[in-house]
Amino acid sequence: MPTGGIRQGSGSQNMNIGHFYGKIVDSKTNKGLESVTVQLLGNKFDTATKKMKEVILSTMITKANGDFSFDNLTVFGNFKLKTSSLGYKALQKQISFGIKMPQGGGQAGNNMQQLLGMVDKDLGNIKMEEDATNLGNVTVTASSRPQFELGIDRKVFNVDKNLVSTGQTATEIMKNIPSLNVDIDGNVTLRNAAPTIFIDGRPTTLTLDQIPADIIDKVELITNPSAKYDASGGNAGILNIVLKKNKKTGYNGGIRTGIDSRGKINFGGDLNLRQNKVNISLNGNFAERKSVSTGITERANILTTPSKVYNSTDGTSNGNFKFLRGGLDYFVDNRNTFSIAGNYVRGTFSSEQTQRVDSTIKSVFTSYNNILTNSSMHFENVGGQFSYKHNFAKNGHNLSADVNYNSSRNSNNSSISTQTYNADNTTKGQALLQQTAGSGTNKFYTFQADYENPIKDDSKFEAGARGAVRDFTNLSDQYRYNYATGQYELVPIISNRYKFNDQVYAAYSTYTFKAGKLNYQLGLRAESSQYTGTLLNAKGADSATYKVSFPLSLFPSAFITYKVTDKQDFQFNYSRRVNRPNFFQLMPFPDYSDPQNINIGNAGLKPEFTNSFEISYNNAYKPSANFLASLFFKHSTNLITRYVYRDKNALTNGDSAYFNTYINADNSYITGLELTNKMPVTKWWDLTLNANLFYSQINATTAATGSTPAQTLSNSLVSWFAKMNSTFKIAKGLSIQFSGDYQAKSVLPPSSGGGRGGMGGGGGMMFGGPQSTSQGYNLPRYGFDLAIRKDWTWKNGQSGSLTLGMNDVFRTQVFKSYSESTFFTQNSERRRDPQILRLNFSYRFGKFDATLFKRKNTKADQSGGQDMMQQ
User: Fold this and answer.
1) What backbone phi and psi angles, to 5 degrees, belong to 170?
2) How far apart are CA 589 and CA 583, in angstroms?
3) Number of C-beta neighbours around residue 130 at 10 A
4) By the 8 A CB rule, do 581 and 607 touch?
5) Confidence bin at 116 (pLDDT 50/70/90)
6) How confident is the model at residue 224 (pLDDT cuts 50, 70, 90)?
7) pTM, whole model, 2 decimals?
8) Chain centroid to CA 389
9) CA distances (Å), 408 to each of 380, 403, 448, 535, in order?
């Protein structure tokens, strides 16, 4: 137990023998209260300021009969005792042993005998009064949390009260998070790059649309990750999703259900049981989805013979997914905890898409195609984590280790019928019939150990090691119907089968310390990786293999926070990161699966390195109000970007075709300003405004390729987007949330695309949507969501809520893009799922001890040093 470290004279070296004890009881019944949080505070000498300051000496939880006890205390000086418990008024009182420092002389021996008789002090029964305004379950307590918080290396957004995402997925939550952009396919970007997705501080193979929104507690934006985290990700940050997990003594849980205007239902529930040394949690969810999308693409080919292609698309997808997550914590004792957690996700979707493609040559309409695509898809994800944490005697001194396993697999089948018609509507030959049979697996293993040691009250050392191994396979067989044989036949040249193994090994250390009003966190990470890609033949055997090894690289980071007052601070941070090319970007073999856009990798790609700088200012300028401003600058060398050229097509005996590949741009930089302000306009209206302004510049020089001459390419653009979130408290238990966003013209992300990770929308374009090269941009768009909720609170900790919401209420969300190359210009326009009405009901129940059970931080609560720095 910490001694408290009260600064003493030379005669007090062995005076840490004091003992306070007592009992916390209900003021009305005089019965002991279990699990009350009891804190003992005392004065301590601060070496930085050379002054005494009040600090928490020890914290404990009362036993079943209300007893508490503090040992090994200095017997001199004054103390403060604080008690807190949900459902009771907080209490604090001044206490002391009533002993003065022994004086020299003949009476010293007698004084010592008297002192020894006073070192055990019974504080008696301390009565706590019920607080009627604080009765209820955990959801009431959570509402007092600020909407966003600034940590030493992250911004935390508490989203458990977000109305417009009720009954949906994590994708819809991200639409309301400042600084994040979400496109029509659910792809999330942070500062114009795709962030790495974490769940509870660890990597995952789950996609955002596979995570129910109702189980998410908060979202952490780590825009500039420190040395503790993987250096991979280039100029993107980390999006850490923290799931709800209750550790209160007793049991509690809830059920929820809903339906939307397309007749699709969702239902789920959660249960948490904490008894003695065991905490068990279980969460399940089932959701049906129907997605409807429309799109138009116009391409003008700039060739010797000019031509145009007009493509209109309508798609509908139907399906469902199930989510199950469970966990068990075993508290061996106060210093050792074992935890195990697992999740299982399964989904099935089918889609139908119709396309009409009109072709015009020299302004003369020549022909059109009618394309019908039917497809089905199934995905499954299994994940597990086993972790151990040991707390040493000193508070905050701990060692932890965990093993994570995530595995996903998917299968998909599609049939495509393409009938070509002449301008006079007569058929042009027989229909082209195609089938695709695909499947894939992704296995992700991570092993990590972390050590944390607060050397002093104002400094901390952290170190750790991590290994990550990923095995990925993908099979896609393309078949065409042979009218002569009456059978579908495999076409090897447009099929692809491959696998890759990716291994990253790293070690890091950080040192956090405080000097006056300045807090520092300095870190260094060493990381190396190796990559093996293999093409497979039709029998699954290896046919071609290539290996790429990236040598050991160092990645420093620095975070400096200046605390102006208790309510405002400045922060500066820096980090170096890397983006290593992936399988598709490296694979030097053509992929003919889309004859209109042949993809080929570049085995000579180099890793992309980014230096990131950020300055933030946070000001809680009045109660329930918060202003956050961030200025950032990122400079990248060898930026990996897409590039389109024209060359001979081996599939069509030498005819020319477009080839999409990747190159290292010379350099790029992005600078931007983010402003977020949350304020209570009136007692019944809370308003959050967010504005993001950024400038991006990409410079690329290409060598001659095939028939394409050497080129100098560059693209720059100033862009901005804004978000608004209003919450109106109409009456007791009745609230309305109205949110909106506006996205101005922006550069196409260097590596966009990819869809929604298995949800499928049937909205894919014939040319793969916007051509993501160093040339292109997204056009402006805007939209609004609306939701209203009624809350009820009953006796015994029961509560319920009914939420009615609609997305894109004014039907204004249209995603438009423009892209160009030396050979064509292209405009794309897509719309997806406007004006869907959703009705959701949730009910919570439980009987548990009325206190927040606070243990030392678990691995899922990676504060990055902010807890210590906020002392």
Assistant:
1) -60, -25
2) 11
3) 15
4) yes
5) low
6) confident
7) 0.74
8) 24
9) 6, 17, 21, 20
